[in-house]
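PROTEIN DESIGN WORKSHEET
SECTION A - STRUCTURE
LENGTH: 215
TOKENS:
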């Protein structure tokens, strides 16, 4: 079956999964094309779509867009389905703030340091750097604390009203808590942990889980 929507990305990329979660939450049918951004032979055709060689890229008919936040905004605006972006000023600001916190301060410690070294690298037979795990956990507490305060405020991250903020954060936390250190760190931030307990059960998260090879 052919779809007019194609998501090109790397199955293990957290940003690729964010885009997939948004598509699932909107109920958009799409096909996927696997692109490994770490490969030495990324095609020229792909580089025409994404000149920086990263993932993902969304194609809808003749329209192509890269950068995950832009993809999320486009999907929300272009398709029918649940509204994932609030219009009320303060709530909209919080959605944007969560995404910025995750991208600027959360991705590196939670994914590139903790998840990559405690879970991902060992799954592929590579050696973990314990110093990276420790540094990632140390840095993550500030991130989790800021997000927990936003969750306590109640405008977003309430586990009920799903926004692009939930879609952006959930895949990051999904990777982070696969490490025992990450799971322990999240428990120290109760409101955020409560949010995760609810959101982690959503069909969009279940359907987009990439899995990892067995050791």
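SECTION B - SEQUENCE
RESIDUE ASSIGNMENT:
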């Amino acid at each position: 079956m052919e779809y007019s929507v194609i998501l090109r990305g790397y199955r293990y990329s957290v940003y690729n999964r964010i885009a997939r979660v948004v598509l699932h939450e909107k109920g958009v049918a799409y096909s996927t094309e696997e692109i490994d951004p770490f490969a030495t032979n990324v095609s020229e055709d792909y580089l025409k779509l994404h000149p920086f060689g990263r993932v993902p890229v969304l194609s809808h008919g003749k329209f192509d867009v890269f950068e995950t936040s832009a993809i999320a905004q486009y999907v929300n605006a272009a398709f029918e389905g649940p509204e994932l972006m609030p219009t009320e000023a303060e709530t909209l600001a919080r959605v944007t703030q969560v995404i910025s916190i995750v991208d600027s301060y959360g991705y590196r410690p939670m994914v590139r340091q903790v998840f990559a070294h405690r879970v991902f690298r060992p799954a592929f037979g590579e050696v973990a750097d314990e110093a990276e795990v420790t540094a990632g956990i140390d840095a993550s507490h500030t991130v989790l604390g800021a997000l927990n305060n936003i969750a306590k405020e109640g405008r977003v991250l309430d586990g009920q009203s799903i926004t692009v903020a939930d879609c952006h954060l959930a895949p990051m936390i999904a990777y982070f808590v696969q490490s025992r250190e990450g799971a322990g760190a999240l428990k120290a931030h109760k409101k955020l942990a409560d949010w995760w307990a609810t959101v982690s059960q959503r069909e969009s998260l279940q359907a987009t889980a990439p899995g990892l090879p067995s050791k």
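SECTION C - NOTES
Residues 102 and 142 are 11 Å apart (CA to CA).
The radius of gyration is 17 Å.
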